[in-house]
């Protein structure tokens, strides 16, 4: 939309990336498997963190966007910005957003999160490796997870886990958040 690239061109250009999605998923699963005991011992806080993160992401973009005067369709397009592109595109379409804008929002979110994650962890003195990984994965999906992997094995594993959990959580909570904020969207 912004760069006047048709969705079809984006999809054809992303086929090569999609080809590698399966192997990358396996690569993310291996470190998580190594951290299975850590995952089990932190399961409840992880699930709460992912759910609150998904709700916060959606509500923040809608509230700030509305305050900035963005149109309803743009708010709906940006609501699924913190999840992977395939899930975000489908959710955007289902709620009346514009998929091309959703794609740009997802890309910007991932890049911003990857750049900001280490700085945020340092400024707020976040030392817990599980919390770092979950925070990065919830807020900035796969691009952020690449940074989390650089931060450490635990961070990378938890961030990889957060990608999938955030996708599922967003699918569940997005309709509820939109219903609560419906009057705000009008």
TrEMBL record:
The keyword ATP-binding does not apply. Keywords: Membrane, Transmembrane, Transmembrane helix. Pfam families: LrgB. It is a multi-pass membrane protein. This is Membrane protein. It comes from the Bacteria. Its main location: membrane. InterPro entries: CidB/LrgB (IPR007300). The chain crosses the membrane at residues 45-68, 98-120, 161-182. GO terms for cellular component: membrane. It is found in: Membrane.
């Amino acid at each position: 939309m912004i760069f006047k690239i048709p969705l079809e061109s984006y999809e054809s250009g992303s086929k090569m990336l999609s080809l590698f999605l399966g192997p990358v998923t396996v690569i993310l699963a291996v470190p998580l498997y190594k951290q299975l005991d850590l995952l089990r011992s932190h399961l409840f806080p992880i699930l709460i963190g992912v759910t609150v993160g998904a709700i916060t992401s959606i509500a923040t973009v809608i509230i700030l966007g509305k305050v900035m005067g963005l149109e309803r369709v743009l708010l709906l397009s940006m609501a699924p910005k913190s999840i992977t592109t395939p899930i975000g595109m489908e959710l955007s379409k289902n709620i009346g957003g514009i998929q091309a804008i959703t794609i740009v929002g997802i890309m910007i979110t991932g890049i911003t999160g990857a750049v900001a994650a280490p700085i945020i962890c340092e400024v707020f003195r976040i030392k817990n490796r599980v919390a770092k990984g979950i925070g990065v994965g919830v807020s900035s999906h796969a691009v952020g997870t690449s940074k989390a992997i650089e931060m450490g094995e635990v961070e990378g594993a938890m961030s990889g886990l957060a990608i999938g959990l955030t996708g599922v959580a967003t699918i569940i909570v997005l309709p509820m958040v939109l219903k609560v904020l419906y009057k705000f969207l009008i």
